[in-house]
Design brief:
Umud Fragment, subunit A; seven-stranded antiparallel sheet; four-stranded antiparallel sheet; 2 helices; about 15% helix
């Protein structure tokens, strides 16, 4: 192999390594892409949404890095989530799994759901009825009531409920420990969140970042080989939307 060919291959390898390090740094310190695989955050987030998670919003823990390989505990450059943030976090009972939910309870809060209504520190969280929505699973059409919920800090967003007497619509009082957060999905009757033992209270260390903005969205009704359907499967109106 000539010297020129060796130098060309070395430059290509160097370019690949540098590009990989830049991509790793971008993903670890700035923004991480995340896709929505389930309907637990409907109507705010839909299955097939793709979004950027801001890593700098809450500082950095070992879960800010791929595979959680960073050899330190706690958080550095830490900032606290605000009530109402949509956050990505590692499941406390299985840190290999990432969840996305809304922060409703801060350290020291008392959280309870009574008759479908969220209560924070013994005060009922205000919600306003907006109307009905429907969804289908291919066999059944399900009706939902859509509400605008307003947290004590003024944060407002949409939630949906099948009814106010479904699973986890009446809970015990949860006391949020220091250094932990209480998370709930906006699709209140179809969300595995802090009301369940599968998730429970989320330690600050498990926070990955705040969900900020959608960069792509598709309906999932076009198979990879059905390229002629691709343009009609994209939800163009959601691309670039901020997440509230």
């Amino acid at each position: 192999m000539s010297k020129k060919n060796k130098e060309g291959k070395f430059e290509l390898l160097k370019t690949i390594v540098i590009a990989g390090l830049i991509a790793l740094g971008f993903r670890s310190f700035l923004f991480e892409p995340f896709n929505i695989p389930s309907g637990s955050m409907v109507p705010t987030l839909l299955v097939g949404d793709y979004l950027f998670v801001s890593k700098a919003s809450y500082g950095y823990s070992r879960y800010s890095f791929p595979l959680g390989i960073a050899p330190f505990g706690g958080r550095i450059f830490a900032d606290v989530p605000e009530r109402g943030d949509v956050a990505v976090f590692r499941q406390p009972t299985d840190p290999a799994v990432s969840f996305i939910k809304r922060v409703v309870g801060l350290p020291g809060d008392r959280i309870q759901v009574k008759g479908g209504l969220l209560h924070i520190n013994d005060e009922t969280v205000e919600r306003s009825y907006l109307g009905l929505a429907t969804a289908t699973n291919g066999f059944l059409t399900i009706n939902f009531k859509v509400y605008e919920e307003t947290l004590p800090n003024g944060s407002t967003y949409l939630i949906q409920e099948r009814s106010d007497d479904d699973s986890y619509d009446d809970t015990a009082v949860f006391q949020v420990p220091e250094g932990h957060y209480f998370m709930m999905g906006d699709n209140r009757d179809n969300s595995r969140d802090s009301r369940t033992t599968a998730v429970g209270m989320v330690p600050a260390e498990n926070l990955v970042g705040r969900a900020d903005r959608l960069f792509f969205s598709h309906k999932g009704n076009a198979r990879i080989w059905e390229f002629w359907k691709w343009p009609f499967a994209i939800r163009y109106g959601r691309i670039g939307d901020s997440i509230i």
